[in-house]
Each structure stands twice: as structure tokens, then as C-alpha cells.
Amino acid sequence: MLDKTIVDQYDPEVFKEALGIFIPDSTEVLSKIDNSKDHETLTSWAHRIKGSYLMIGAKGVADLALLIERSQSFEEGKSHVAELKSAHERLLSFLKTSYQIEG
Fold first, then answer.
1. pTM of this prediction?
2. N or C: which end of the chain has fewer CB within 10 A?
3. Which domains does the chain have, with CATH numbers?
């Protein structure tokens, strides 16, 4: 689920600490994506969360955010939000289990 070449660039404790920041921050940004009311806001938040996913090596989830970021209309972008939310939840479950993170 994570790109090992990215993960291996981090000291394990630093990576776990970064995940402690990533989890609540990305969850908040995902909520902002879900509640976006216009295309510009939607794509802006998608760009932000895409970068966060890439920083921890979650390229597959980042690719879903990229679909929203590159969408040509609000409706097109919103059509990918449910899939992104589902992938995000699977990622969080994986991270919490694999790195023994509470919350």
C-alpha cells in the first residue's frame, strides 16, 4: 500500500511521528474535499491531499486525488470523492495497524 522507496527514506521513528500528523490532517482535508461547494475549492484541496499522500508513499491514493485535481468540472471531481474516501479509510486502517498508531 506504501511505496517502500519512499518509506525507507525516513528514520522509522520520524516516519511514525509524521504519520501522527498526517492522519488527522489528511482526515480534515478529506472532509473539506467532501464538503466543497465549488470546483476551485475542490481541486485546491485535492492538490493538497495528493501531496500529503505522496510524502508518505501512498501513490495509489494520491492518484485518486489527482483525478479530482485534474477534473474539468465540479461534477466530474465530485464523482471521484467517494472512491477517494474509501481508499483513504483503507489507508488509515493499514497505517494504524502497521505502525501501531492510536486514534
1. 0.95
2. C
3. 4-97 (1.20.120.160)
